[in-house]
Amino acid sequence: MRKPNKLQHKLSILKSYQSLHILIYILLAGIMFLVMFSNVKPDVLQIEALKPSEQTIRSPLTIEDKVATKTKQDAAAKEVEDVFTLKSDYADNQVDLVISIFDSIDETNNEAIDIHKSKVKEWENLSEDDRGEEPKQLTASEKLQILKTKLPQDLTDRIQNDVLTALLTASPNQLSRTKDAVITAVNNVMNTRIPASEVETAKNKVVEELRYSSVDPALREPMREMARFAVVQNVYYDVEATEEKRQQAIEAVEPVKILQGQIIVEEGHLITRDIYRQLELLGMTNTNNPIQPFIGLLLIILLIITGIIYHFHNEMIPTDRHRNIYLLIFAIIFTITILLMKGISLFQQIDYSDIGYIVPVAMGAMLIKLLINEKVAILSSMVFAVCGSLIFNEGVTGTLNFSAGIYFLFGSLAGVLFLSKHNRRGKILQAGLFVALINILVIFSIMLLQNGNYSSLDYGSSIIMAVLSGVIAAVLTIGLLPFFEAGFNILSTMKLIELSNPNHPLLRKILTEAPGTYHHSVMVANLSESACEAIGANGLLARVSSYYHDIGKTKRPHFFIENQMNIENPHDKIAPQLSKTIITAHATDGAETLRKFKMPKEIVDIAEQHHGTTLLKYFFHKAKQQSERDILESDFRYVGPKAQTKEAAVIGIADSVEAAVRSLSNPTPHKIESLVNSIIADRLQDGQFDECDITLKELDVVAKTLCESLKGIFHSRIEYPAETTKQKVKEA
What we know:
Layout lengths: L1 H39 L16 E2 L4 E2 L1 H13 L5 E3 L2 H37 L14 H11 L2 H6 L2 H8 L3 H19 L8 H11 L7 H14 L4 E3 L1 H14 L4 E2 L4 E3 L7 H9 L10 H23 L5 H26 L16 H10 L2 H18 L10 H20 L6 H23 L5 H32 L5 H7 L5 H9 L1 H20 L4 H10 L27 H21 L4 H9 L7 H10 L19 H17 L6 H17 L10 H18 L7 H11 L1
Antiparallel strand pairs: 1-6, 2-5, 3-4
Helix pairs in contact: 1-12, 1-13, 2-10, 3-4, 3-7, 4-6, 6-9, 7-8, 7-9, 8-9, 12-15, 13-14, 13-15, 14-15, 14-16, 14-18, 15-16, 16-17, 17-18, 20-21, 21-22, 21-26, 21-28, 22-24, 22-26, 23-24, 23-25, 24-26, 26-27, 27-28
């Protein structure tokens, strides 16, 4: 009947933990929503067109004014001139046309000659009685008729008969000269731009070109007429090119945007119809509050809460008990920081938009770093930056102040990263000064990026606020830290210092009942502290935990070799199984004793975990030698659990290393290094570090640090003259 009751009790505790988690997350979301509600609520203005504005109205967002953009595009398109394209092939076409006409004239003349010859031949073949008058050459009109059959009708209709007749009657030499002159003149003129309005000018120009041609006077006028006929318009309106150019002009127009923070209308100025249209576009004339900004705020809050849930349920907070405590601490610190930001943001109404630079937002991040862990502190820094950019929106609702967000982010991260290397109370003020320095650099970078015209007063006031922000953050951190440590029973630096006092009852108990164990614990404390600090773990926690890690040996002190001073080893007279039980019991006995004295859980856990589930090799092999049946390794292992933290892992290594080196007859640096590396390798291969987050690189650092410490402890002594003499006498 007891088992179901215990199970139900555990389930009820788990449900209560989960309910508390959900409640805290809901409270955090509610606090963020209430704090930032006014910063996203759209301003609804009682305004009318064609009346003076009762206040200066700024744009709450950046939006494109499509009507203004379209007007600007139409104006740009109208400014584009029509595109007229030069038909460069027209020159060749007209030259070819002239050549074809002259070729047709040559063909006609040749054909007329052939006809005449044919008639003469027929006349000669007739008898003298039948012969009449000898055939004559074809007349010009007859040649013209033949020529018209060779040319298109539309062409012959446009060229006067007199021109063609004159060319038909010209000699071949004169015709050739005329042809060349016309072709040259037409080609020259047609290769220039001839729009419709300048065709007549071009025709006159071609006549001017023929003025000095060496042709028969009778052919001058026909030559001019032929050239004038060949000159035509070669520049035409290009619809596609004109449309393309207009489209390019439209695309080149920058969209007209109403910028966030831009003044739409100043107080007392008339609200014109265009201004009213802009206010409508911005949604500032709508008397009904739109829901979109609140949905956006809820989505941001949802993302923030999701990140918090992930970190608290997956990152370095393994138990529900710790998670509840840390989550409550986080919620309190977060609320204090957000409310502090909101309170200071109210002073934006005094028309000093940079008042946010004085907010000691790094306080929240540093407190979370000191009381919870670094990852949650970094997450908090990002959350504070997002919330701050909304809260300090310079009175323009629904906007983000990116300058304030960047300032809060870098300042918070500076405090967190500084304390990650100097995790001590005395370094908090230094961290504040470091935050102040980073704040100043961020402010200068923002001012330089904005390329504004800032006065010396602007720079001076910003620097003062940056320094005050860092210093106040440090002071508040120092002041609030003891309240959290006492109120939530957190193992603080001061608490650890108190527990390290040699007059503590448990330490006096170890000293009086197991002096060898006390000396061993002090040695382990020295080794583990330096090793933990080398890998960034809590060195002070390692030192204090080492003092108490073997408290369980006080129950049967003489069964441990460091306390066997001039007495017989009791393990020689008992079975190895019993020896194993006595030896392994000191870890559980120690944890039980520490719990009775209400010692911090971190110290209790280290006392219980410092041996993990390692094998008692000596008694295991002794049992195998004495027994004929198979002996299981699991029967000679510590019950565990394995090390859960870096501190527990390092103390376990230091504990084994100190005992092993002390057993060496002549510890040399080489022997010490080999022994330390073999112990760490053995534990690593045995899987003793599987449940903690220590890395191979950190184990290497631990090994080097332990070797350096041990070499300092077991250094070679200087051989004095008297000792040298005695040694020589003994050797003799």
